[in-house]
Design brief:
The protein contains 16 helices and eight strands. By secondary structure, it is of the alpha/beta class. The protein has two domains: about 325 residues, Homocysteine-binding-like domain (TIM Barrel, Alpha-Beta Barrel); about 30 residues, no CATH class. Helix 11 links the parallel strand 5 and strand 6.
């Protein structure tokens, strides 16, 4: 037995040494998308606001420099849940946004972005994850300062990300396709692969450009991956990406598709998305999607042809784990470490000491459950689906 064990250990060590000598680089984003599905991460700004590290209102990401351990811990939770990408926590981190009154940050764009890149890389190296440098919309666009002013802000962010050798760029949370095109023009110059996601619903961008046209313009501007993120719920996001796919197919374009919706039920909202919910931002818990809602979304997205599937605001680590578990087969049978403490469809309840809880197991029970808010009175505010439309 000892001889066999030593022989097995020797084989393992020899194989490990051989792999290290080969210096095989990890697969990049496009290679991973070509061979399977990439699981994104979840939301940072709202999660860290609840934990006391982000200020609601500005929603800027100075926590990456001010409280790096908090950001690192959230990255680790997403990695453990199955995320294949560590997206830098650099949301709203342009100098023009940081200078807005009320932010109260003493950190520069460079300091925040540099720290965010280093944190993301450290955690990515703990698994087999890629690092995505995230750039977002700039106030300069809405202020009418023009293309050069906006691109100057974008260049400052990209410069730090290139210096830190991120694996690819995500241009996300853009409300206007024109601004997105300006950002992509700069992002493509880095030579890195670029993904582009707009914060729009089925009605299109803030000027009325339909989602299909937005997708076509993003692809023609050089994005290898296109889609939508944040602002809208699971169902609206699926509807929007369907419209994008139809337009791309009609134009003979075939970028990879990506969805990262928010984690709140908000049907019927207008172009402002979940911002128009009276509970936003401090009482959204009653609208939170369940892990079973997310499994349904992940399957539907995959069946539509989406291959980069993640979440945004409201998506916690257990939501990302739900994506990983739903797409286990498509991910080569791989389950994330967090699944060691979780049995799908509630089967862990079999070990409960309470008899009636042991009955709450199985897909039929949990998939068909419509959760209650737990409140006996109706909402205190009327819901206006589109306050600015």
């Amino acid at each position: 037995m000892t001889f066999e064990l030593n022989h097995l250990l020797r084989d393992i060590v020899e194989k490990a040494l051989l792999l290290s000598l080969l210096h095989l680089p990890p697969q990049g984003l496009l290679e991973r998308l070509s061979s399977g599905v990439v699981v994104g991460d979840g939301g940072f700004v709202m999660a860290l606001e609840k934990r006391g590290y982000v200020k609601a209102g500005p929603w800027t990401a100075e926590a990456s420099a001010e409280h790096p351990e908090a950001v690192k811990q959230l990255h680790r939770e997403f990695l453990r849940a199955g995320s294949d990408v560590m997206q830098t926590f650099t949301f709203y981190t342009s100098e023009d946004k940081l200078s807005v009154a009320g932010n109260g940050t003493a950190f520069t764009c460079r300091e925040i972005n540099d720290s965010a890149c280093r944190i993301a890389r450290e955690v990515a190296n703990e698994g087999d994850a890629l690092v995505a440098g995230s750039i977002t919309q700039c106030p300069s666009y809405a202020q009418g300062k023009g293309k050069e002013a906006v691109q100057a802000q974008i260049r400052e962010q990209l410069k730090v990300m290139v210096e830190n050798k991120v694996d690819f760029i995500i241009a996300e949370f853009f409300h206007y396709i024109e601004e997105m095109e300006w950002a992509l023009e700069e992002a493509v110059k880095t030579g890195l692969d670029v993904a582009a996601t707009m914060a729009i619903g089925a009605r299109g961008d803030r000027t009325g450009v339909p989602p299909g046209q937005c997708a076509v313009r993003m692809a023609k501007a050089g994005a290898k991956v296109v889609g939508v993120n944040c602002m809208f719920d699971l169902d609206t996001t699926l509807d929007t990406i369907t419209k994008m796919k139809e337009a791309l197919d009609a134009e003979g374009l075939s970028p990879f598709l990506m969805t990262q919706p928010n984690g709140f039920h908000c049907p019927g909202v207008g172009r402002e998305g979940y911002l128009s919910c009276p509970e936003f931002p401090f009482a959204m818990e009653c609208r939170t999607v369940t892990r079973f809602d997310v499994r349904k979304y992940a399957r539907a997205a995959y069946n539509l042809g989406v291959r980069y599937i993640g979440g945004c605001c409201g998506f916690e680590a257990y939501h990302i784990r739900a994506i990983s578990e739903e797409l286990q087969k498509e991910r080569g049978g791989k389950l994330p470490p967090a699944s060691l403490k979780h049995e799908s469809w509630g089967y862990g309840q079999r070990y409960s000491s309470t008899p009636y809880l042991r009955e709450r197991v199985g897909r039929e029970y949990w998939e068909n459950l419509v959760p209650s808010s737990g409140r006996l009175q109706p909402p205190s505010h009327g819901f206006h689906p589109a306050p600015k439309d």
